[in-house]
Amino acid sequence: MTARALTCPACGAPVRVSAAGRSLSVLCSGCGATLDAATPELRLLTSQAADLAVPEIPLGTRAELDGTLWEVIGWLERERSDGSHRWQEYLLFNPWEGFCWLIDDDGFHLGTPIAVAPDAAGRTAILDGRDWHGTSRYDARVARAVGEFHWRIAVGDTVAVREYALGSRLLAAEVNGTEASWTLITPQPHGRIEALFGLSERAPPAEALPRLRELWPLHLGMAMAAMLAVLLIDATVPREEWVASTRLSVPIDGPTATTSIGPVTLPAGPHRIAIRVMDADRLDNQWIDLDYELVNRRTQASYPVDAVAEQYHGVDYDGPWSEGDRRPLRTMAAIPGGTYDLVIEATGRSWKPPRQIDISLGLPPGEQQIEIAVSRDGSFGANLFLAALALFLWPLTLAMFAAEVDDEDEDDW
User: Fold this and answer.
1) For residue 155, which of 34, 10, 7 has the smallest C-alpha distance?
2) Are residues 190 and 287 in the same domain?
3) Is the overall model pTM greater than 0.90, yes or no?
4) What does the pLDDT read at residue 363?
5) Distance between CA 194 and CA 191 in Å, rounded?
6) Do 167 and 270 share a domain, yes or no?
């Protein structure tokens, strides 16, 4: 590569032109003036008052990428027109290969110009028979620049950018008026560019949000595999076994009825105990308060729990209504092995709608026959639900973030 050494007509600083005959403009590193690289004397085009900057990779630096020796001849800093994001771009030149870009944006990326434009329509671009998904659309502005470029460049120049993704790669179209230039952007392995250009080591780049579109199906598959493992484990849990039951007559608006179920024998190890009212279907505007106490015959350790079997109905301004659970279920977890009695106290009460109170006065209390059964072991359905929720929460969160990214992009397109 042969460079042409000249001086800036504005400040006299040395100006180096590496791509003579191919570069159209040079930005002086001394004063920021824009010079016409197509003229032998570097005619002054614009006196620039923008802030000057020293690129991290100095102009003139050379490095070999994939067997080709490239030289850094230009540097610019760009930003979105709304000021939300900035990044840097280095223009690389080789006399036989032409130009390419080294983009410093949350890690280094190599930008290769595409000679034949992809077939782009709406949110899809087709290149080499593969569909690229549109991810964003915005305006990019040149904030600072130095060095030489193969187009007329000035600080403040703005182009419309459209980006399409396929995996970790991007297709970027820069539209200026009616002209569009396309670049294939490929992320570089962490540390590769730093080593080739002698830069200090950087922290690994953060994962970009658009990658969630690819990550969440993977996490969803992992969650499904974990859920299958949970179901297999649940299949090894002993099945539910009903071990005892009893029938009980409960006076309504009368004294408390008491009975017990036993013995309830549990083998060694912790067990799940379920107590269910099996038959209280004749409750009618009535309820039964049930106090259960599982008592170990040997140690007298007790485990209390309560329930209500109930049913109510009536008519109000909205029409007929009904509510209540005639067959409540209560469970106890981690009950040690042993021999137990289930002591039951049942108190019945009646409820009458206001219009029925007077005509019900003086009626003798009735009775309700109920059946109560006890089972052991089996799994907690709620535990399986919580396990499923925990396993799927992360991939579903990723999916929602990916959907939000798509929604935001949809607003831009």
Assistant:
1) 34
2) no
3) no
4) 43
5) 5
6) no
